[in-house]
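FW: tagging you since you asked about this chain on Friday. Here's the raw sequence from the shared folder, copied in full. Didn't touch anything.
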Amino acid sequence: MNPGSDPLADLRGLHLPPDPGFWPLAPGWWLLLAMLILLGVACVWLWRRHQQRSRPHPALAEMARLQVRAQSLDDRALIAQWSALLRRVAMQQHGPQAAGLAGEAWAQHLAAHAPADHEAGDAEVWAALGTGRYAPSPQIKSRERLVAHCQAWVEHVAGQERNNAHT
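HL: got it, structure written out here
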């Protein structure tokens, strides 16, 4: 080293560490990523739930088709068609034990699960649905009343099913 020379001239330059990479992520980024994933899952769940609630119940569509055909059916076929629809809805809502019900037991099941405004005094409608399809010539006093009771029963039970599925 020379006494007259600049001592700093002999020093080498600073060696800086390399710039930090993006990996591994800082904890804040992991938290943000987890929150975005949860938000995405919640959005998908809410969208599916909305789709299920906005879709009409299949029994209601079948009921509409049956109402159109009701005028062309005789009493026995009308009872058989409505009873079959009610049985499918009952099996979906109340389980397979509804499939084994027939006659008076089926009529009692229909009356027990009827909406409040259609259960009292309508034993003949439920009895016609329970035993009418097996009678040689079933007698229906009012086809419109039978159809109205069946429609109310399907709407009531399908509404219960929809509410139970989404709670």
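FW: Residues 75-165 form one domain.
HL: agreed, and The first helix runs from residue 27 to 54.
FW: great, closing this out.
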